[in-house]
Automatic annotation (TrEMBL):
Organism from which the protein derives: Linnemannia elongata AG-77
UniProt biased composition (Low complexity): 529-555, 564-576
One of the Pfam families matching this protein, by short name: F-box-like
Compositional bias (Gly residues): 640-653
Domain F-box residues, every copy: 16-47
Full protein name: RNI-like protein
Cited CDD domains: F-box_SF
Disordered: annotated segments: 337-361, 495-597, 631-662
Gene Ontology CC entries for this record: cytoplasm
SUPFAM superfamilies with a match to the protein in the record: F-box domain (SSF81383), L domain-like (SSF52058), RNI-like (SSF52047)
């Protein structure tokens, strides 16, 4: 007989509305897998996949004719659209405005049900180019975001009149006149984001007066906004759920406290790089019980006292960023052993340290935390490593209780974290962890230790560390040391088969031979790969450091006379010790001193160095592949070609987890 529970769940999955709700919560990869189950699931999954579309890297300069048939079939399902530009294209001064208008018209005319739109344009583009086209097709648009810098109030009014459903605006360089245009044409606006705005305190207060039901207020990178603006907003807006004043350095505590006191529904708060104090954050802990996200990076006035109040009172907290708040000590995790803190050098922090040490240990109340960034905290006391080491057990004990944690950042600490020695048991309980950051450590870790740390987490999808945070395996270190000795003897640095940074510096001062060419020396067993490199150019002086060298050519220039026999094509290669020893014995039987080790020795060093891998890699038990460069130099992660998307394909700040590239 069939299980009634299984039968009920099977019937529930047959209801399209329930299935769509389930699909809507899936990741992009899981949704693609679900589309392979049957035709009905494929139809519903494709509908959701088509809801979110990204056109990356120069949307108006590329030929998108291949996209039109897809939009003709599924354009009515697209609800969110991002039109992106590469950083170089954003700085272009000469823009084909006609082509941009035509491209935007072709896209928007095929997406009639669009609700969210993010358009990136070059910095010289005027607002009239966008508002004319978007106002024509954006009847259902609810969110509009752009990096446009040159706004005209009349164009903003025209846009909002053509898009009456807009409730969320996000842009740059908003002025007071622009705020007035918004207030006149869109009185139902509930969310506004302003980056690097140009309005003053009075203009913001006048705007807030027109929107008493404002839910989201984001004003970032405003260097001249003062507490007067916050005091004015606090008089009219009592339903705020989202506040962002990132990098607003002129704000003061009286403004923070006035606004936070009338925001009991606050769910998101970003006060990074501001002059916020402990009293302000304690007020948040007492007045904002629904807080879910708190970002306080680089807040140098905060101590562990206010953070302890947050983690004890805000039970719904999901996101906590305390990165590089150097006065926050590890006692935020509790101090069960109550170590003496009298050795802390800072007299201003000694009282807070002793008071926190006397506080009995109690677990955090926000056990549903999913994101925690404590990079660089405790920095003011990094000299007292004994204090930090005594607090590490409490930290790992608390972390073991945060079993829902998805992201953990522990980078930039000035003391040893002893991740495996003291944290193995606690961290191994974080079975849902997907991202771990252990970059910029005080002491590099052996490669085997990095692998072992990564293997603690079965679902790890991202492990961040720098190449110079890693100690290579011992065998590799010995090879590098031997090659370094040879390079020191040769007089110049060899990097993966080519000379870099400087020209070779002769080992000895020498007279020229009668051919005008420098001599060369061959060494027993030195292998010469055909066409691998050429000998460096002869330098007439004994000091040539600091001059860039010419890259090695595939063949040597012809010499009139050579003092050494042609190197053999033996398959054996000289070791570092053989080359160094041969250099000393090569002077026997010659009348003149050698100026350099010569072609065969250099090529042998290159051949030996090329045997080593440039990158070492490993695969963790989660399937994640990690690697590091032996030279300790990391590539620039910001470089990427067409088709590069954020991790997981997400669009930051849009309220939906993933977007579908075309």
């Amino acid at each position: 007989m069939s299980d009634p529970l299984l039968l009920a769940s099977t019937k529930a999955l047959a209801i399209p509305e329930i299935l769509c709700l389930i699909f809507d919560c899936m990741t992009l990869a899981a949704l693609r897998q679900a589309s392979l189950v049957c035709k009905e699931w494929e139809r519903l999954a494709n509908t959701i996949l088509a809801n979110q579309l990204i056109i990356p890297n120069d949307w108006y300069t590329h030929d998108l004719t291949h996209l039109w048939p897809y939009l003709d079939r599924r354009g009515e399902h697209v609800k969110a659209l991002a039109l992106e530009l590469s950083p170089s294209t954003r700085l272009v001064q000469e823009v084909d405005l006609e082509r941009m208008t035509r491209q935007l018209d072709n896209i928007l005319s095929r997406t009639p049900n669009l609700e969210r739109l993010d358009v990136q344009v070059p910095r010289e583009v005027k607002s009239s180019i966008l508002t004319t086209v978007i106002g024509r097709y954006g009847k259902k648009l609810q969110l509009f975001e752009t990096n446009l810098l040159n706004w005209e109030p009349s164009d903003m009014a025209h846009l909002l009149e053509g898009c009456p459903q807009i409730r969320h605006l996000s842009g740059h360089n908003f002025t007071g006149d622009l705020l007035q245009a918004i207030a006149r044409t869109q009185p139902l606006l509930s969310k506004i984001d302003c980056t690097h705005p140009r309005f003053d305190d009075d203009e913001l207060i006048a705007f807030a007066k027109q929107f008493p039901n404002l839910l989201r207020l984001s004003v970032s990178l405003h260097q001249f906004m003062t507490a007067k603006a916050l005091l004015g907003v606090a008089e009219y807006c009592f339903q705020l759920e989202y506040l962002n004043f990132h990098f607003c350095l002129s704000l003061q505590s009286n403004g923070f406290q006035a606004l936070l006191a009338v925001s009991p529904n606050l769910r998101f708060l970003d006060l990074g790089l501001t002059e916020v104090h402990d009293a302000d954050i304690v007020l948040v802990a007492n007045r904002c019980p629904q807080l879910e996200s708190l970002k306080l990076p680089f807040c140098g006035n905060l101590t562990q006292m206010s953070i302890r109040a947050i983690v004890q009172n805000c039970t719904r907290l999901l996101h906590l960023d305390l990165s590089f708040c150097d006065k926050i000590m590890l006692t935020i995790f509790g101090d069960p052993s109550s170590p003496s803190t009298s050795s802390v050098s800072s007299s201003s922090s000694s009282s807070s340290s002793s008071s926190s040490a006397s506080t009995p240990y109690s677990p955090w109340s926000c056990l549903g935390l999913q994101y925690l960034d404590i990079s660089g905290i405790h920095a003011s006391y990094s000299a007292d490593t004994s204090v930090a080491s005594a607090l590490l057990p409490a930290m790992y004990s608390q972390l073991s209780l945060l079993t829902d944690l998805r992201t953990l950042k522990l980078s930039g600490h000035g003391f040893s974290l002893k991740i495996l020695e003291q944290g193995r048991t606690g961290l191994s309980k974080l079975t849902k962890l997907e991202r771990l950051d252990i970059a910029k450590l005080r002491n590099p870790l052996p490669w085997a230790t990095i692998i072992e740390i990564g293997n603690l987490f079965p679902k790890l999808a991202e492990l961040q560390f720098r190449s110079n945070d890693v100690i290579p395996p011992q065998a590799t270190l010995e090879q590098e040391q031997a090659i370094a000795e040879v390079e020191a003897k040769v007089g110049h640095r060899i990097k993966r088969g080519r000379f870099v940074d400087q020209q070779p510096e002769p080992l000895y001062q020498d007279d020229e031979d009668d051919s005008g060419q420098g001599g060369s020396t061959s060494f027993p067993g030195a292998a010469v790969p055909t066409g691998s490199c050429s000998s460096p150019s002869r330098t007439p002086t004994s000091s040539t450091t600091g001059t860039p060298s010419t890259p090695l050519e595939p063949s040597l220039p012809k010499r009139k006379r050579s003092r050494s026999p042609s190197p053999t094509s033996s398959t054996s290669s000289a070791t570092a010790e053989d080359i160094i020893a041969a250099e000393g014995s090569s002077e026997q039987g010659t009348k003149k001193k050698r100026t350099s080790l010569g072609k065969a020795a250099v090529v042998a060093v290159v051949a030996e160095k090329q045997k080593q891998p440039e990158v070492m890699s490993a695969t963790l038990r989660s399937g994640l592949k990690i690697s590091f460069r032996l030279n300790g130099e990391d590539e620039d992660d910001s470089q990427g070609g067409p088709g590069d998307f954020p991790a997981g394909g997400g669009v930051v700040g849009w309220g939906f987890p993933e977007a579908m590239p075309y």
